Amino acid sequence: MAVEEAKSHCVVLIPSPFTGHITPMLQLAYVLHAKGFSIVINHSELNPPDTSNHPEFTFFPLKDGLSNRDPSFSNLFNIIPEMNTNCRGPFRQYLVEMMEEKTELYGKISCIVYDHLMYFVNEVADHLKLPSILLRPSSCAYMEAVCAFFQLRAENHFPLPESQLLDPVPKVPVLRFKDLPFALTSEIPEHVLKLLEKVADLGSSVAIIWNTMGDLENRALSWLQQYYQVPIFTIGPLHKMASSSLTSLAEEDANCISWLDTQAPNSVLYVSLGSIVVMDENELIETAWGLFNSNRPFLWVVRSSNDLPDGYLEAVGDRGRIVKWAPQKEVLAHPAIGGFWSHCGWNSTLESILEGVPMICRPCFGDQNVNARYLTHVWKVGLELGTDDLTRGVVERAIRKLMVEEEGEELRLRIHDMKQKLQMSFRDGGSSRNSLKSLTEFMSSL
Ligand code: UDP
User: Is 135 exposed, middle or buried (0-12, 13-18, 19+ CB in 10 A)?
Assistant: First the structure.
């Protein structure tokens, strides 16, 4: 496709408002903009992007009345359906106006790309006879696990006795039942099941864009290709494919970088559980003392630092830094970082792999369990910390294993090797670059 031709095309993007979702959508916006598409972004009023950081794009807020809601985990299963109900009308109205009045400004709408949590889009696009493409910000492995879960459910496998939780899942034997998206020993609430069904469903979308690499997830990708029967474009990792990194929603504490500059290579453990997971009080205290007792330098993201033990910061002194939000990609790329204790969100997983930083895996919910299992048992670049209650002794031992002992060094060498191979994907002629070329041709043909 000639770039001049693409300039007459506009792509409308609908991100969901959670950091781990809006970030890859904004990265995709940069990728498509660099290919000549004009970009319109319709976003929720909850957690909106800072539009002044992205003057290249046109932003339009969807009046969903959710700006004051707390997007923490306990609220997600209520907020997501509400957001889908509330956004439908405003989005439809915006598209109608755009098609009637604004074609000259932005070009013809080529297609609508939507985050898989914003499933209302599919219905609106159908109604207006516009093609829609789904963006999956999760791993292929996770969606394969979700599909396996629904198949097993249809075959009446659940609820499952406790004693079977560690058994391999038929069809995806690398996973144990406990790695599937839900606790399977009790009935799953109907509204939660419905939501998962909607997220897994492709509706009438004509293709899927996946923030992953064919070179990383070949097996799960082939399976999903059979399952969905539409073109799948694997153009990840989007943070490396995009020309801009200005996509953080929260204010980053850049001071930690100058502190990292004073630390020895591979000596610092970076600890972050992403944007949604919160540690309970006991876990926070055990983690704090485990980090302290390990005697290793650490950089720890604690989004709310109120509950740290009294006197803790003084005791740690210059051996550690605690920040509310770190410039994570820059941190992981810093030579002083020798390990990453992570909740294994998909963005964090990709960012860590692509910087060659071995991980301590402490997943909490949803896709994190699947990603952690792949990190520890398939790619073998992470240590399993499990999901049981933490004690300071367990924390200290895991840190020593990763940062000091031979096992950690083996993981470091392996992930370094993985990084070297995978970075070919987003270079000229690599699998993600080729997939992006196919995607832009596909979009221009719609
Ligand atoms: N992140 C960051 N600073 C922090 C913690 C996280 O910039 O202090 C970014 C991280 O780089 C990643 C995103 O927030 O891009 C978190 O996404 P992920 O999918 O890992 O987890 P989620 O927040 O969705 O649980």
Answer: buried
